[in-house]
Specification:
The chain is of the alpha+beta class. The protein is built from four helices and six strands, in the order αββββαβαβα. 37% of the residues lie in helices and 19% in strands. The chain starts with a helix and ends in a 6-residue tail after the last helix.
Length: 134
């Protein structure tokens, strides 16, 4: 459980980074001040303290935006929950389907029918926003 809670700030930061994509051209960029981090320009952002439910930051939080990056974050969350419950392990291997390997957009260029560790797939989703790893 502690590993999952340590990853929540990373996932929240990743969401802010993903949100700055040019796909969201209908909204004006909002500078996102994060302690110890250079200003990030994002269309919207929301950061909440998990333990207390206190909003730490919010800008255009109600703005409707495409959900592709949110789906990636939810994929990582569900993967981590499966690791935590013991259904899979970080060292477990996943065979990549032809469909997954053929995903366009941001990708890690995975080979179809090749096996990859869960840990490596999660890292490639969080770091490179890899559609094929999802």
């Amino acid at each position: 459980m502690k590993k999952l809670f340590r990853l929540i700030p990373i996932l929240a930061f990743a969401l802010l980074i993903f949100a700055q994509s040019n796909l969201y051209a209908h909204a004006a960029p909002v500078p996102v001040p994060l302690p110890g981090v250079a200003a990030v320009k994002a269309k919207s952002g929301y950061l909440m303290d998990y333990a207390t439910g206190t909003e730490l930051y919010g800008a255009n939080a109600g703005l409707h935006l495409p959900v592709a990056s949110m789906v990636k974050i939810m994929t990582v969350l569900l993967s981590l929950e499966h690791v935590e419950s013991g259904k899979i392990g970080f060292d477990s291997t996943i065979t990549v389907s032809q469909n997954a390997a053929s995903m366009g957009g941001s990708q890690a260029f995975l080979d179809a029918n090749a096996q990859y560790k869960v840990d490596d797939l999660i890292k490639s989703i969080v770091i490179a926003s890899a559609n094929d790893s999802c």
